[in-house]
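User: Please fill in residues for this 187-position structure.
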């Protein structure tokens, strides 16, 4: 179904525009979830979300510490990624690094995937910037194989399909659609 490719591209384009806007003003309410909600608000077919991370869409990837618990599809640009108390430790070039994200807050770090390097298990994420005095959206790289503790979940956004015959909305929030409709993802 071409619709997913269209929505994924639109979510990435929306996040990119919000990044440019963030040089001049605050995006959303300044929170991680506020940024993702603002990105979704500009995409006509994306399902509007209300929560902080559990209703962003269909769960396609879960990683706890170093082991992948669930992987039903590839991570693609436009997917929503969330980190809960994630500690990453690894090497960047010749240097070691240690990073903690999504910790200390009541809600996870949530962002929009902008790029994926599957061979390196690396994702680039548009996310709200919580540092005072800097632009309010940043593009950060995370290497999922460097996750030592915590949880990472990736979801593809829910969307609304309108049936041309009956003009009713079909919502597929967290479960695959049954019958003749399926959720297909194209690169």
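Assistant: Residues filled in for all 187 positions:
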């Amino acid at each position: 179904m071409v619709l997913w490719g269209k929505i994924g591209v639109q979510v990435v384009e929306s996040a990119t525009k919000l990044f440019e806007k963030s040089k001049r003003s605050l995006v959303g309410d300044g929170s991680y979830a506020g940024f993702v909600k603002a990105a979704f608000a500009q995409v006509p077919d994306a399902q509007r979300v209300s929560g902080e991370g559990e209703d962003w869409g269909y769960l396609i990837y879960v990683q706890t510490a170093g082991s992948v618990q669930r992987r039903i599809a590839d991570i693609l640009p436009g997917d929503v990624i969330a980190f809960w108390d994630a500690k990453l430790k690894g090497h960047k070039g010749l240097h070691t690094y240690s990073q903690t994200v999504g910790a200390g807050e009541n809600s996870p770090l949530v962002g929009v995937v902008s790029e994926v390097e599957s061979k390196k298990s690396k994702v680039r994420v548009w996310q709200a910037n919580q540092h005072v005095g800097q632009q309010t959206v940043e593009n950060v790289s995370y290497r999922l194989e460097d996750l030592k503790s915590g949880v990472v979940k990736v979801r593809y956004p829910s969307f609304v399909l309108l049936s041309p015959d009956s003009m009713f909305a079909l919502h597929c929030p967290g479960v695959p659609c049954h019958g003749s409709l399926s959720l297909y993802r194209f690169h």
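For context: Residues 21 and 27 are 7 Å apart (CA to CA).
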